[in-house]
Specification:
heterodimer; A: Ubiquitin-like (UB roll); DNA polymerase, domain 1; five-stranded mixed sheet; 5 strands; B: Aldehyde Oxidoreductase, domain 4; Aldehyde Oxidoreductase, domain 4; 3 domains; globular; oxidoreductase activity (chain B); AldOxase/xan_DH_Mopterin-bd_sf (chain B); Ald_Oxase/Xan_DH_a/b (chain B)
Chain lengths: 151, 763
């Protein structure tokens, strides 16, 4: 077990964990931030997507020891001020069905828009290809990203 | 314990009499029974620091308090259909509540109070549209009476709107809350003569109503089963029998216990090779302070298994056996006329064999449940379950407790699709919590989920169709064979039940003079369950594929062909031809007949909306299919083409649906959008294979579901305006999409598709 200091949603947090503990379980079990979800543990579904220094990563496949000084943002910290344009668009399009994969979808889309504020349809599809939705909300996810990109 | 699944077991009238048409006395009883859970019955309750909040609750589903807060109970499970919104909104609409301020509370599993809570079979709306209207109307009636008394006016001249009673003639208005004291002395209105609003007067029903939880979901605040925590809890990850029926010979726990955070290793006993639908599999549980420690501890276990009778099971070999079976005479399930003679006089005979694989549910939230076995011998559960009552009974049975000592709280479900009807994972958590006297949350990994599901069964079918000299379809002989759901519980269940046969096979609606439908024996070597639309999946694939082929042989447009095969407008009951029961999804066939006119209406509508005749003239690759399931009529047109890399894409899907009175139109559309995506996975990407009794796939790399680039691009859902009794939409989008897609692929590639998922070579 080792001690780590993480910068989580702008706040320094101390945790004690084995070096190989995936960031996902640090977030969920040690920091009790439940908005980041477990779906596959193999970076295949995107439910656990968070940002490290603004880039989307699959937290299930990054050991805590590799995080270092990078700034971690989870869905709880996506928009401290209020609502991110994607969160507003998500409500406008009533995107979710069961809702479980949606925070990962939003985090992935937020990183996409940060890198590419006006993505084409093909760019959206390609950027979102790693995020699975079993309920099949893909059409509304795409529409919400397009709406948010215009705001 | 036999679960109640009306789509498999026929009409259930007992529940209905209790909840659908409660007598006044029963209604009062329901009200008072609820007092232990959430509500206070028909009289007052005072709460708040000074007892200043007074609450009025005329029945189990709603309450109004003196702060003008309207609380409505969602008693069915939310797994993505929107039911947690759509049932309460019926109560609110009938009541005249201010919908934006309504609070929704999730019910615990309690059949005596809420009636059936088994969220399955697309029947929440069908079963509870009327009771929800009545729940709201009862309160509304009492509020109108109270206002009439206060204002000394005729209550008939009053109405409710936005949480107030208004009297149009005098312009008076009053908040519900300000009538609470008067309600104390009101009689519960007679349920037989209770007046409901006219359909045209509804402000929510028939409209797009956003889901209640959308904001919480977008902010990561919505809590699912896997998110539940209790102080002092432990996390369990379980190594389960790799083959169904395998037994632990011995195991070494030392290495697991060396992992920091791992505290206990506990064996769970299984229930044999036909373990049933609500029992855990045999396994070794690793119990730890956190999930990662439990996962690592499990990996460090050494378990020696006696793999049992299923260790030599190969699904590919069983498929070949099943195909051979279809060549023989089977068990007769429906007969009309004499197909053998008809084939003798047929000018053309088509005979085709169809194969479909096992499928896993693969909900993105893998099964998880939190159980707390308390010092007083009671158990409290928090679980993402479709069927809290069965979870409660199953826990009570496994722990030998009275069900009254088990409380099941229902969380949001991260997908269900039938998987989370089965409470095996809930029982695991309860057993482990009792063993260690602490709260335990069981967490399945994705691999656990893919390896130990209750699978949609693989299937073989052979359809033989005879056309007379004029090209008319005169004989239809359908053989179907697949390991049945019943085989999960009993080695003797070798044929599909009447329920499974009635899912798109024996209810063949077309006007063909000679029909013979047969099933064959197949043994269950794994746990078979039900997946969104169940055996409609493979039956619709085969039947609508064959009809498309027949249309081609006859030189007919497939849409025109299907319309003509439906024949005269009429209501079918099948009864005289069925060799067993026809469950009709749990409904009386006279109340919900198979109405060919309604099917024609959706076919005509989808054909118009999709501009079908122009599409086929322009040589677009479009495919059509129509299929009724769960009492909802659906027709579907799918267009396919290739992208610049030669990959198949689905640019447009059109659905037309007649689900009776449309309740929440936005959620109807979302179910069809999602249904098309779900069906795309079944048609094009997913399959489970067994070798040596074990599932070969592990995770989303090998068990693939559709991703955004391959997903259908535009999905249009055209909803028939109907005054018929409302029916569900969770499952009906799935069956017709698959053959419509396959028929479109045939137009694109010139190759007929007889096997799912569609092989690369075909696309």
């Amino acid at each position: 077990m080792e001690n780590f200091t993480l910068l989580v949603n702008g706040v320094r947090r101390e945790v004690t964990a084995p070096a190989d503990m995936p960031l996902l379980w640090v977030i969920r079990d040690l920091l009790s931030l439940k908005g980041t979800k477990f779906g596959c543990g193999q970076a295949l579904c995107g439910a656990c997507t968070v940002h490290l220094d603004g880039q989307a990563v699959r937290s299930c496949s990054i050991p805590i020891a590799e995080v270092g000084e990078q700034e971690l943002t989870t869905i709880e910290g996506l928009s401290v001020e209020g609502e991110h344009p994607l969160q507003i668009a998500w409500q406008e399009h009533v995107v979710p069905q069961c809702g479980y994969c949606q925070t990962g979808q939003i985090m992935n889309a937020a990183a996409l828009l940060r890198n590419n504020p006006s993505p084409t349809e093909v760019e959206i599809e390609s950027a979102m290809a790693g995020n699975l939705c079993r309920c099949g909300t893909y059409n509304r996810i795409k529409a919400a990203i397009q709406t948010a990109s215009q705001s | 314990m036999i679960p109640k699944f009306p789509f498999l077991s026929g009409p259930k009238t007992s529940n209905r009499s209790k909840v659908f048409r409660p007598s006044r006395r029963e209604f009062l009883k329901i009200g008072s029974l609820a007092s232990g859970a959430f509500l206070i019955g028909v009289n007052f309750q005072c709460s708040g620091p000074k007892g200043e909040i007074r609450t009025f609750a005329p029945n189990a589903y709603l309450s109004i308090n003196s702060d003008n807060e309207v609380r409505i109970i969602a008693h069915r499970s939310e797994m993505g259909t929107g039911i947690r919104t759509s049932l309460p909104m019926i109560v609110a609409d009938e009541l005249g509540a201010d919908w934006k301020s309504v609070k929704i509370e999730q019910a615990v599993g309690d059949e005596a109070t809420y009636g059936d809570q088994n969220t399955d079979g697309s029947y929440s709306i069908r079963m509870f549209f009327e009771p929800m209207r009545r729940a709201g109307a009862t309160a509304r009636h009492m509020l109108l009476e109270a206002a009439g008394k206060k204002w000394e006016v005729d209550p008939a001249g009053c109405d409710t709107e936005n949480g107030q009673v208004i009297h149009a003639a005098s312009g008076q208005q009053i908040k519900f809350a300000d009538l609470i004291d008067l309600l104390q002395d009101m009689e519960i209105p007679d349920q037989e003569t209770l007046k409901l609003r006219k359909l045209s007067d509804y402000k929510l029903i028939g409209k797009d109503v956003p889901i209640y939880d959308v904001k919480d979901i977008a902010h990561g605040k919505a809590l699912f089963g896997a998110d539940m925590d209790l102080p002092g809890q432990q996390i369990a990850v379980i190594e389960r029998s790799p083959v169904v029926g395998a037994k632990v010979i011995n195991y070494a726990e030392d290495k697991a216990l060396e992992i920091p955070g791992v505290n206990r290793v506990i064996k769970i006993s299984g229930n044999g090779a036909h373990p049933g639908l609500n029992k855990p599999l045999e396994g070794i549980a690793v119990i730890a302070d956190n999930t990662w420690a439990a996962i690592k501890g499990r990996a460090a276990l050494q378990v020696e298994w006696d793999l049992g009778d299923n260790k030599d099971y190969q699904c590919a070999a069983q498929m070949e056996d099943m195909i051979r079976e279809t060549l023989e005479d089977g068990k007769l399930r429906r007969e009309k006329g004499d197909v053998k003679t008809a084939f003798g006089s047929s000018g053309t005979v088509l005979e085709k064999t169809y194969r479909a694989p096992y499928y896993a549910h693969a909900t993105i939230e893998p099964p998880a449940a939190l159980a707390h076995y308390k010092a007083d011998g009671t158990v409290e559960i928090w679980a993402p379950t479709q069927h809290p009552q069965w979870a409660r009974d199953s826990v009570a049975e496994a722990l030998e407790l009275d069900a009254a000592n088990v409380r099941v709280n229902v969380t949001l479900l991260g997908g269900g699709f039938g998987r989370k009807s089965k409470p095996d994972y809930v029982v695991e958590a309860a057993l482990l919590s009792r063993a260690i006297k602490k709260p335990v949350r069981v967490q399945w990994t994705r691999e656990d989920d893919i390896h130990h599901d209750f699978y949609h069964s693989h299937s073989a079918q052979r359809i033989k169709a005879g056309l007379d000299a004029q090209g008319k379809l005169i004989a239809w002989n359908h053989h179907t064979v697949f390991p049945a759901i019943g085989g999960t519980s009993s080695a003797d269940e070798l044929h599909p039940s009447d329920g499974e046969m009635g899912l798109g096979c024996t209810d063949f609606p077309y006007d063909v003079p000679n029909i013979r439908i047969e099933s064959h024996e197949a043994k269950a070597h794994t746990r078979i369950g039900w997946l969104r639309s169940v055996s409609n999946i493979h039956h619709a694939f085969a039947i609508s594929g064959m009809l498309d082929e027949i249309a081609e042989v006859r030189g007919m447009d497939p849409v025109e062909h299907t319309l003509s095969l439906l024949g005269e407008d009429r209501q079918l009951s099948f009864n005289e031809e069925m060799k067993g029961e026809y469950p009709n999804y749990g409904e009386d066939i006279t109340a919900y007949p198979w109405d060919t006119a309604r099917m024609k209406r959706v076919i005509e509508r989808v054909s118009t909306e999709a501009n079908w005749s122009k599409s086929i003239q322009d040589g677009k690759a479009v495919g059509f299919a129509a299929h009724k399931s769960f009492l909802t009529y659906v027709a579907c047109i799918v267009e396919v083409s290739r992208d610049e890399n030669g990959k198949i894409i689905v640019p447009v899907v059109h659905y037309a649906v007649d689900c009776g009175i449309p309740v929440n139109t936005d959620r109807i559309r979302s179910q069809f959008e999602g249904g098309a995506q779900f069906a795309s996975s079944l048609a094009m990407s997913s399959a489970i294979n067994f070798e040596n009794g074990q599932v070969r796939q592990n995770n989303f790399d090998s068990y693939q579901i559709i991703r955004m680039p391959q997903a259908p691009k535009q999905i249009y859902t055209h909803i028939i305006e109907s005054q018929e009794k409302p029916t569900g939409v969770g499952e009906p989008p799935v069956p017709p999409f698959i053959p419509a897609l396959c028929n479109a692929l045939y137009q694109l590639n010139g190759k007929r598709i007889y096997e799912l998922p569609v092989k690369e070579a075909f696309v």
